[in-house]
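pinging the channel bc i need a second pair of eyes. not urgent but kinda urgent?? the chain im working w is below, pasted from the shared doc
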Amino acid sequence: MPTQAKTAQKPHKRRKKGSLKEAKLRLWAAIERTSSLIESEEQPEIVLRAVHALAQSVSAYVRLNDAHIGEPVSTAVAKQLAENLT
C-alpha cells in the first residue's frame, strides 16, 4: 500500500522566484484596494481590520522599497501615501 501512495503523488512544480519589482507592484495594489475599502466600508470591525492590513502593507512596502533602491526613501513613500489617501 505505501508504494502505491508514493507513485500516486504528483511531483511538485517549482515556482518561479518573484522579483522585488513584482512584490512592490502587488503590495501597492493591495494598499490601493485596502484604502478604497476603508473609504467605502461602513462596518467598524471591517474598517479596523482594513486599517491594520493597510499599516502592515505600508510597512512592508517601505522595507521592500528601501531594499530595492538601497537607500531609505520612507519620507517619499509616506508623502505619496498621504497624497493618495486624501
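so The mean pLDDT is 78. and Residues 19-85 form one domain. — does that match what u expected or am i reading it wrong
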